Amino acid sequence: MSGAVLVAVAAAVGNLLQGWDNATIAGAVLYIKKEFNLESNPSMEGLIVAMSLIGATLITTWSGGVADLLGRRPMLILSSILYFVGSLVMLWSPNVYVLLLGRLLDGFGVGLVVTLVPIYISETAPPEIRGLLNTLPQFTGSGGMFLSYCMVFGMSLVPSPSWRLMLGVLLVPSLVFFFLTVFFLPESPRWLVSKGQMLEAKRVLQRLRGREDVSGEMALLVEGLGIGGETTIEEYIIGPADDVADDLDLAVDKDQIKLYGAEEGLSWVARPVKGGSTVSIMSRHGSTLSKRQGSLIDPLVTLFGSVHEKMPDTGSMRSALFPHFGSMFSVGGNQPRNEEWDEENLVGDGEGYPSDHGEEDSDDDGDNDLHSPLISRQTTSMEKGMHTGHGPLSTFRHGSQVQGAHGEGTGSSMGIGGGWQVAWKWTEREDESGEKEGGFKRIYLHQEGFPGSRRGSIVSLPGGGDGAGESDFVQAAALVSQPALYSKDLLREHTIGPAMVHPSEAAKSSIWHDLHDPGVKSALFVGVGLQILQQFSGINGVLYYTPQILEQAGVGVLLSNLGISSSSASFLISALTTFVMLPAIAVAMRLMDLSGRRTLLLTTIPILIASLIVLVVSNIVHMNSIVHAVISTISVVLYFCFFVMGFGPTPNILCSEIFPTRVRGICIAICALTFWICDIIVTYSLPVLLKSIGLAGVFGMYAIVCCISWVFVYLKVPETKGMPLEVITEFFSVGARQAEAAKTD
């Protein structure tokens, strides 16, 4: 996974520039107002600082939609250019108006980075370490602030500090970011799939995952193009087709279901479990409980929780669904592989995938069918005679255990991360006229608990080894829905091959229609709510108060005794404050994928509440100045550390995970716009609040907001750790429909 890690680190350099800029302007403004005589014009001074916020807010209004249209990488390149040009303008700045222009351009770069870096990292990272990698922007942002404060402190010690040089130094890291975005960062594979560029998407995935076989994840990316399909939660007993027929005599069982993998030669048989899956049962129980409690706890929270309670403790990148079926999910040795979606060497056979060659090629002859991950050119007796309206259905050949050569730690062709697998089934039924009709169903599979542990089932898995001579079966929860390329709404136009449509066609739809999907609306409620509560939780107020607290603790006196001026001392104090955050963020990076996003929020927000309450009491109760300084300092340090562990990075991480591919850019732009608007409100309301209700009143208000935040997280925010993005959005869709059904009932 080193490829995904390096790409995430390179993308997070953009946030280092954001932190660098925030800290630099805080120091440079002291010298700017002296040169331009702004002491008597505080509004202009405030505008210089706020212009970056204004620029970020303006560009956020359209950045998400453009990123969905043009791609994530071009927008990151544009942000690096804006950083570079903005720093050049600020370095020149003959007057205050040119300086404002430079700050505006710089703000444009900040806005693009804040919106797009979380999207980019989420779309390229494996589910198992997505939380860790998406915490990198928080770490690099704080690291950039620390480095910048150190630079400003050093420059403030010279007789005539140059604010132009302070701001212009941004040229150097912006050039580094530019070269990284142009020459190192690939385009997001999910965006490439949404535009039908399958070959390029496959190459990028192979680079990011460090392996050749990415057919399962490629199939997942295509399935992620759908929005709002009807999804059911089922449970299956799954095993090799031969074993099921021999041991359980299910060959004539009407409940028998044949499942097909994303790679040629992968097929097996499943039998539905009566009574539904554990996930389904717990979900329905949560929905019923929500109705009894007045719909306080969102069924979505219960639904996600049921999955994490049942996750087996197996390797991260190894398939968790079939721990003894390594051969069923990986192909090696002499077995032919069919992981190519659009191999150039198939064009000669009339089976080329037209995604990278233009759609006009798809109409040249009738055999130019979609070479999708779920179908191949081999037909068995089970599928013979089945037809669709656009040609014969060709499915994977029957194959039991295909011997594999992948070792431990290697992702299987079916694995899509977090112990989830992707498969498809063919359903055949009779319509009202008695004619047979059928269709594909896409299935996300996840192992239920531990093998052979439920209902005293005859199904069991061997405790270890190869299990030779024993029947290998597992029980798995299944999210069953319509495949993205098999949408009935799209079958009437631009179909390619056996009742399939081109991925770029599947991604076309009305944005407003997608935004009104219940799952998307539910995700927007969670994302926007977290952004609002984060900004009003008190971080700006505590940052504002920190220099005063450290001054009371005697830090200022100590530094003045060392011959350091008051302005230089404030820069050093700010550097120390940001330095304290770095170890806490490092801890959060480790815990984000172990404890989870929801757990981190629920455990860190109470510490924020306690710290704010202590600050309120310390400002109300009269006490010794030294005692007051010590208590306040401890409270502020605890607040900073636990904020950057939970409420700091988590809202952006969750927002980058919970939206479907087709509208991820515009939805995150909505959340980012909310962030910037609330940031402006909090920043400019703080002085007014300090005058009206005092410092104790401000901290008390922030403590109340943190209490509301904890309740909101407990009732509405699900746990998304370790789950593929497409599965997360599927669960949001299911949970939203359950909530609507609960309200109707």
UniProtKB/TrEMBL annotation:
InterPro entries, A to Z: MFS_dom, MFS_sugar_transport-like, MFS_trans_sf, Myo-inositol_Transporter, Sugar/inositol_transpt, Sugar_transporter_CS
Keyword Transmembrane helix belongs to the record: yes
GO molecular-function terms, A-Z: transmembrane transporter activity
Domain Major facilitator superfamily (MFS) profile residues, every copy: 7-721
Protein topology in the membrane: Multi-pass membrane protein
Comp. bias (Acidic residues): 358-367
Reactions performed catalytically: D-glucose(out) + H(+)(in) = D-glucose(in) + H(+)(out); sucrose(out) + H(+)(in) = sucrose(in) + H(+)(out)
Localization annotation: Vacuole membrane
Domain of life from the UniProt record: Eukaryota
Residues covered by region (Disordered): 333-417
GO cellular component: plant-type vacuole membrane
Biased composition (Gly residues): 406-417
Bilayer-crossing regions: 43-63, 75-94, 100-121, 133-157, 163-185, 566-588, 600-620, 626-645, 666-686, 692-715
Keyword tags: Membrane, Phosphoprotein, Sugar transport, Transmembrane, Transmembrane helix, Transport, Vacuole
Family: Belongs to the major facilitator superfamily. Sugar transporter (TC 2.A.1.1) family.
Name of protein: Monosaccharide-sensing protein 2
